[in-house]
């Protein structure tokens, strides 16, 4: 396998780029396998599918929701082909489906809906939580590098953090933890991260939605594992053996935001169990505008065995 597939692209435009090979048919140009991941980064598959669908829609319609299912992991060594089906074309809404195929197998499906904007309609939103400004938070790679300098860190952990420093430094997405494991009086645990695309030019609003979809997948389902105290390298019921996305949904409520500026992703997990966890999120601009609501369910397994077949429970 080409080692270049192991490093996330420095330009978000490269990560999202697809080649149109027929009227409703598109093909990925590059794919990224994150460190310790089972397959291609899910956010990249979502965003490339959205780019493909958006290319099959009248620009008068704006993406307002996408609903995805990941059927199996994708390999970074073979291009993904995206087939867009034009399900419905109405006066106010239109619907597209996208099937992602690799090696003749459907690995991912998406249903997405587009709307002619109605900005004159009334609106409301939940307020953005109070967190430190992005300028007062440190980058992930800075945090990892600081941990490496601690002489008490185990060499294996230091090597892992060094790999994370390289990956995060080369990522087209900058991430700064704003607040982690904040517990409210009602017992709700929240994780919050500032995220933005690095050094991007001026894009059309539709492409900013695709970028948001890309980075909305960062740290999302792992939030459920962290809330349960599961971690890689732990022991028994505290050991995380697997996380993998099952489905991912985004609802957009703003058509004019800039993913090149910091946005806050607020994440909470209301329930986990039976080897699964669900996480809900809200994405705010730095001025407090709630532009998108997110939801994701995934496999979240501890390193514990179930009962043997025919065993008495």
TrEMBL record:
UniProt-listed InterPro entries: ACOT8-like_C, Acyl-CoA_hotdog, Acyl_CoA_thio, HotDog_dom_sf, TesB_ACOT8-like_N
UniProt GO cellular component terms: peroxisomal matrix
Keywords: Hydrolase
GO BP annotation list: acyl-CoA metabolic process; fatty acid catabolic process
Domain Acyl-CoA thioesterase-like N-terminal HotDog: 37-115
GO MF term set: fatty acyl-CoA hydrolase activity
Membrane spanning residue stretches: none
Domain Acyl-CoA thioesterase-like C-terminal as annotated: residue spans: 181-300
CDD domains named in the record: Thioesterase_II_repeat1, Thioesterase_II_repeat2
SUPFAM superfamilies: Thioesterase/thiol ester dehydrase-isomerase (SSF54637)
Superkingdom of the source species: Eukaryota
Family designation: Belongs to the C/M/P thioester hydrolase family.
UniProt protein name: Acyl-CoA thioesterase II
Organism field: Laccaria amethystina LaAM-08-1
